[in-house]
Amino acid sequence: MLTEALVVSALLFAIGTLGVLLRRNAIVMFLCIELQLNAVNLAFVALSRYVGIEGQVFVFFVMTVAAAEAAVGLAIIISIFRHFRTVNVDNFNLLKW
Amino acid sequence: MVEFLFIVFAVVAVGSAAGVVLARSPVGSLLFMVASLASVAALYVLLEAHFLAAIQVMVYAGAIMVLFLFVIMLLNLGHDYRRDLRLTLTALPLFALTGGIAALLILRFRGAEQAPIYRFFGGGDAIDAALAEQGAVGAIAHPLFTDYLVPFEITGILLLVAIVGAMALAKRHVDDPVPAPAPPAEPLAALDASAEEG
Q: What's B31's domain CATH number?
């Protein structure tokens, strides 16, 4: 089952990357980042079957960090929305080269 | 049976992940995301990580996704159905690179269950023993509160910092222009007048 789980994990990660690269809505991009974190979690759990329970402990930490990241990231999105009245990332090009 | 369920939930997880990318409205993306997270939780159950499956449903699919939904509704983005997919030339090589890394990972670990390194760690038998002895929660809690106590405490501090940071970022500053309040209706005056008449 290790190989199958890693295949699913790789597919989820690739789809998440595609979403971050293709979507312009900041919130959906953020959702796709969560999808990538989730794919990595799945790989950790699959490998923890064979390597030890530490993989699951690490997934626990990843979930906590994801929660903190979601809170701060969404606060940033709200703050950006107040300034620009949109969440489309094409409009935030101040820091672009 | 386990293999069949694994394939079913894997297909649902990958399909709804594609839905996250392709759905037009942000709320649609979010609901697809919840489906994907729930199916990954089912995969956790099939991989014998029962506690993580429960945490996944409660924290990820419950709390974090509700936070996203709150923000979408707060910013009133639920009615935005314009297609915002942007196909650029840089995205395709980057996606090919990611897919290549994923394929490399798959090739590297294909049929790795019998590799000597996994037998060295004790493999699934060690985890099965820990689960039988300490239960699904105890098997994770024991290393979490002994070997990984310092990272655990640091995670607590991280959550505190995230709370403070989120409030500092999202609150309205004192000198920001406050939107004009709606003019108050006058039900009390009408009520007084009717009381005086009566």
A: 1.20.120.1200
